[in-house]
## 1
Amino acid sequence: MKMVPGRRARMLAATTATVGLVLVAGCSSDDDGGKKTTANGVELVKGGQLTTCTHLPYPPFQSEIDGKVQGFDVALIDLVAEDLGVKQVVLDQPFENFKTGGSLNAGQCDLAAAGMTITDERKKNVDFSDPYFEATQAVLADRKSGITSFADLKGKKVGAQAQTTGEEYAKSKGLDPVSFESSDALLNGLRTGQVQAVVIDYPVVQGWLKDKANADAFKVADNINTGEEYGFTVKKGNTALADAINKALADAKSDGTYKKLYEKWIGPYDESASASPSAAS
C-alpha cells in the first residue's frame, strides 16, 4: 500500500489497539492454496491485521485506558502496522510466553511488545528488533522505610515483577524478592505494605509517581544503570517482519515521530535515554 504523505503527524493523535482476536480489514488478502496472509512481503498469522502479544498492564508502554490498549509500545507498533497497510490487534498473555517464544511459535501472534529487555538468553528463543529504548532499574521505597540506596535493601522485604530482569538483578545481588505477576500488582504490594521497596524499571516509576498521593508516600531511593535495552520480538527466522519493524523505528527516529511519542508517553526526551533504532541488537 502506498504511504500517504503526513501519516506520521496523524499518528500523534491518541494511539489505540483492540484487545482480542478481532479481524480488521486491511490491504492484504489470503493467498491461493491456503497460504497465510501477507502484506508487503511480510507473512502474518491472521489476515488483515498485525497481531501483537503483550502482558498487561505495563504503563507507560502498554495498559488499558478507556477500554483500549494504549502506550508507547502500542504507538510504535501502530507505525509498523500502517507501513504494512493493516491494523494492529493486541492480545494479553503471560510474560513467560514471550521469553520462551511460545506465543510466536504457536502462531498466536506476529510479534511481542512488552517492554522486554534484550538478553542473550532470550535471543536463543526469539529474534529481537533493533533496540528502541534504554531502561534503568529503580529502587522505589516507602519514605518511612529508611531505605536510601540499593545497599539498604539487605534485610528488608523487597518485591519484583516475576520473570523480569529486575527480579534477576535483585537475586544476583543476594536478595530474595517477593514475586508479583505484573507491575501493577507489584506497585500495589508496595502501596499496601506487603513489601517495603521494589526493584522495577524506572520508566514505570516515572508514571506512577505522577500521582501526588504516591509521590508523597514513596520515593526513588536509587537508580541502577544495568545497560538494558528494550526490543520487540518475532519468531526465530522471521527476518521480513523484523526488517519492517526496524524500518518503522528508524523512520520514526529520523522524522521526529519517535521523539513526540516518547514525550507523550514517557516524559521529557533525552537522546541518551533512547536506544538508536539503527544499532544492532
## 2
Amino acid sequence: MIKGKYLDPKADLTFKKIFGEHKHLVKSLLNALLPLNDDECIESIEYWPADKIPDRTEVEKYSIVDVCCRDNKRREFIVEMQMSWTESFKKRVLLNASKAYVAQTNKGMFYANLQPVYALNFVNDIFMRDVEDYYHYYHLVHDKFTDEVIDGLHLIFVELPKFKAQTFSERKMQVLWLRFLTEIDENTREAPAELLANAEVNEALEIVERAAFTDEEMFFYDKFWDRVSTQRTLEYDWKMKMEKAEAKTKEAEARTKEAEARTKEAEARTKEAETRTKEAEDKLVNTARYLKAMSLSNEQIAKATGLTPAEIESL
C-alpha cells in the first residue's frame, strides 16, 4: 500500500514539532483561533519552561498534546489537542488554566497586573451533538449585562470533526489552520492548493512531510496512535458496560414500578371488597333493627338476616 506524503499533524510528535518548536507558527495559530480584537493580536511568543507544563496521568499523556507559551504582554496560552472526549475534560482544562492564572501571583504584587489565560483546546471528537457550531468560547460574563466581562480565564473548545471547509468564517487563517488539522493525515498524497499557497501553513506542511522523520521518530509516532487506539477501545468498552448497566437498572426500576402498580391495584381491590362487605353488613344490621322494631323474635330475625341471636340481642 502506497503511503501518503504527510503525517497527521494532530499526533503528539507532529503537533509539537510544528507549534512547540516554531514560535511564529503557534503565534499564527493563536491569532487565528482565539477571540482577540485587532488591537489584541499576539506580537511575539516565548515558550513556558518545561517544569511549568501541566502534569498528566499515564492515560492522559497519550491522548492530550500540550503547547504552552506566553506573549510579550505576559498573557498565558495553553494549546491542547485532545484525541477523545471525556466529561471531565472541561473541568481539567479549567483547573489548569486557573493554575496558570494563580501562578502569576507573588507577594506584594498588584492584582491589576494579572494577565488573562487562554486555553485553546482542539478536540478530535464530538461532544455537543445537538449543536451545529464547532467553536465554543467560555469566559466570565455578567448574566444580564453581557458587556460586563471579567478578563481572566478564556476557554475555547474546537470540535474538529464538525469543521467543514465551507464553514463560514471571517478569519481566513482560522479556516486554513483548521483545514490543515482536519484534511492532512497519513493518506494525504497532495495538499490542497489553498494550504500550499499560504506561507505559514505551507511551512507546517513541510514539517510534517513523512520524509523529514527518522525511523526513531516514526516509532514514537506509531506508538502514540497505538496508545490512542487502545484508550479509545477501553473508553468504548467502558461506555458499553455503563450503558448495559444503566439499561439493566432501568429495566429493574420498570419491573419494580410495575410490581408497585400491581400491589396498589390489589390493595385497591381489597379496599373495594372490604367496603362492599361493610355495606352489606350495615344493610343486614339495619334490616335486623327494622324487623326487631316490628316485634319479630330473635329466631325469626336470625333466619331472615343470617345474624346470630347474640348479635341481634346486642342491637
